[in-house]
């Protein structure tokens, strides 16, 4: 089953630098490991999140600990229960289980408010009337300190009153914020009196209209970790400069459990854009078929395309964990799915761009059943009966009128082997009024049936085929990169209008009859394909090409 539990070789078990930190901690008073995966429910997860999921759940599994699933739902304007449900589905699909540890930041809003009040009472937070633009101007630079807010020295009593009135909805969005009172001359700009609460009159997917003030992520994140008694808060590198603020919140509120934040480099794939803004724009502009479009690198997209959870976990293992940002070649991801599918996927014949081939000396109205193996290297997949008839479909690219040297397929006078069947020789072809070849005429040698001894006779080319009267007409969705480089675009890339090509007249052998959504096949020479889970019906099958058969990635096997 695809959603079986992740195996021992998940990303937590790769001997990375995070193990060094954890092992050091376990030599002291710490006797447990408790991690968390904290997505924001403002979009669908993508392949980058898979690395974090494998890492957090993998570490917990490796050390006999626990991993929580926690939704950081502190920004109601962009969050939705649709995203919550999709994230849970993705994690289960990858093979991980949070058991009874499902949490939401919104469940802690009362506590967070109380902790904010505590900071005010300690003189560590104040209500500020500066606009966002004014705060930005007063923040300073890396070489110059910031300027203190004129509201920084309000009394505790005034701050408590204003903060409560903020909670009660007496002020407009942006009119006031609650800021931590730290150090406007700090070398770390994140410590220059950061905003920890803002006003947002927005409907929240969980708390509805109960709140109109919401904590900022830099305040909510450490509070959530501490409440849940997380031991190691694993974050991506962009949070490294935020770690002093994380520790400041933990220490000022004086939580008994003080999580350790550890940062790692996020996943960047070549020729791929994973930013949620970009993905959301594609969805909202209708350029793709929703968040699970197979062209997207969202987990639901690659799942629909036909990727397996085993291949994603293998990929995360291969790329490992480090602190150095780098770009991983997409070919490495494709290599992992090929490796996972190559030995367990039945091989069938399917013609993407068909042209008719007529064997002129084969009996009319005769159907011969040929036995062909389901996999050339895996006998356990058995064999099948394939109908062979006078009229066949072959790939248009398997014929050329004027072939170059070393073209070992069909042209007039050339002989090839039909996969699992006979040798045929092309004798003639027919064109339509536009000069397009529509039909090939061939003769066959009945003494060359597959499996017989041909007395040393050989041909250099073998092509696949599908019986015309028995063909199952389907659609095949063929994908390219979703973006292409464009130096004239301010982003440096643009949407690729050719990212999807549809083979409208894909002809498959009868073996695909009865195929269900997510069933996978290897189409000889054309790649690995999966029955689309959204647009396929029993009568009209649609296949997504998962990946081609050729790979440019060479694994390091040392």
Provide structural commentary.
With 558 residues, the chain is an alpha/beta fold. It folds into 3 domains: 217 residues, Rossmann fold (3-Layer(aba) Sandwich); 96 residues, Alpha-Beta Complex (Glutamyl-tRNA Synthetase, domain 3); 121 residues, Ribosomal Protein L25, Chain P, CATH 2.40.240. The protein is built from 12 helices and 27 strands. Strands 10-25-26-27-21-24-11 form a 7-stranded mixed beta sheet. It has a 7-stranded mixed beta sheet with strand order 19-16-17-18-12-15-20, with no helix packed on it. Strands 4-5-6-7 form a 4-stranded antiparallel beta sheet. A hairpin with a 5-residue loop joins strand 17 and strand 18. Helix 7 packs across helix 8. The longest helix has 16 residues. The chain is elongated and about 100 Å long. The N terminus is likely disordered.
């Amino acid at each position: 089953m695809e959603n079986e539990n992740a195996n021992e070789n998940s990303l937590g078990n790769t001997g990375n630098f995070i193990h060094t930190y954890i092992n050091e901690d376990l030599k002291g008073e710490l006797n447990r490991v408790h991690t968390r995966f904290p997505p924001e429910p403002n979009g669908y997860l993508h392949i980058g999140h898979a690395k974090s999921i494998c890492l957090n759940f993998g570490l917990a599994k490796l050390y006999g600990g626990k991993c929580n699933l926690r939704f950081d739902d502190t920004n109601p304007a962009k969050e939705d229960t649709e995203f919550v449900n999709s994230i849970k589905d993705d994690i289960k699909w990858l093979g991980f289980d949070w058991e009874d540890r499902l949490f939401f930041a919104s469940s802690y809003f009362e506590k967070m408010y109380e902790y904010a009040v505590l900071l005010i009472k300690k003189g560590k937070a104040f209500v500020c009337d500066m606009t966002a633009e004014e705060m930005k101007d007063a923040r300073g630079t890396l070489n110059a300190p910031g300027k203190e807010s004129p509201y920084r020295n309000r009394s505790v009593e005034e701050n408590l009153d204003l903060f409560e009135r903020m909670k009660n909805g007496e002020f407009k969005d942006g009119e006031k914020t609650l800021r931590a009172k730290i150090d406007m001359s700090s070398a770390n700009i994140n410590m220059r009196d950061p905003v920890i609460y803002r006003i947002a009159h927005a409907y929240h997917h969980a708390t509805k209209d109960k709140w109109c003030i919401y904590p900022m992520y830099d305040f909510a994140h450490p509070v959530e970790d501490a409440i849940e008694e997380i031991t190691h808060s694993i974050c991506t590198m962009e949070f490294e400069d935020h770690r002093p603020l994380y520790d400041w919140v933990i220490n000022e509120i004086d939580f008994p459990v003080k999580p350790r934040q550890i940062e790692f480099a996020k996943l960047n794939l070549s020729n791929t854009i994973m930013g949620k803004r970009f993905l959301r724009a594609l969805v909202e502009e209708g350029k793709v078929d929703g968040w699970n479009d197979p062209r997207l690198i969202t987990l639901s997209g690659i799942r629909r395309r036909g990727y397996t959870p085993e291949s994603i976990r293998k990929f995360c293992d291969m790329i490992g964990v480090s602190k150095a940002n780098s770009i991983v070649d997409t070919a490495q991801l494709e290599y992992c799915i090929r490796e996972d599918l190559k030995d367990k996927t039945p091989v069938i014949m399917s013609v993407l761009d068909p042209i008719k081939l007529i064997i002129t000396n084969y009996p009319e109205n005769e159907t011969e059943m040929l036995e062909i193996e389901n996999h050339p290297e895996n006998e356990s997949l058995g064999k099948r009966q394939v109908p062979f008839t006078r009229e066949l479909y072959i790939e248009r690219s398997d014929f050329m009128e004027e072939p170059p040297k070393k073209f070992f397929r069909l042209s007039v006078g050339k002989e090839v082997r039909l996969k699992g069947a006979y040798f045929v020789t092309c004798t003639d072809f027919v064109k339509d009024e536009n000069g397009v070849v529509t039909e090939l005429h061939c003769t066959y040698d009945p003494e060359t049936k597959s499996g017989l001894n041909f007395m040393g006779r050989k041909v250099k080319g073998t092509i696949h085929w599908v019986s015309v009267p028995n063909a199952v007409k389907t659609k095949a969705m063929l994908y390219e990169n979703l973006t292409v480089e464009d130096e004239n675009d301010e982003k440096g890339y643009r949407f690729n209008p050719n990212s999807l090509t549809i083979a409208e007249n894909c002809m498959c052998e009868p073996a695909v009859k009865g195929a269900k959504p997510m069933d996978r096949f290897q189409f000889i020479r054309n790649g690995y394909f999966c029955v689309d889970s959204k647009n396929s019906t029993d009568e009209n099958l649609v296949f997504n090409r998962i990946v081609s058969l050729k790979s440019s990635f060479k694994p390091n096997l040392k």
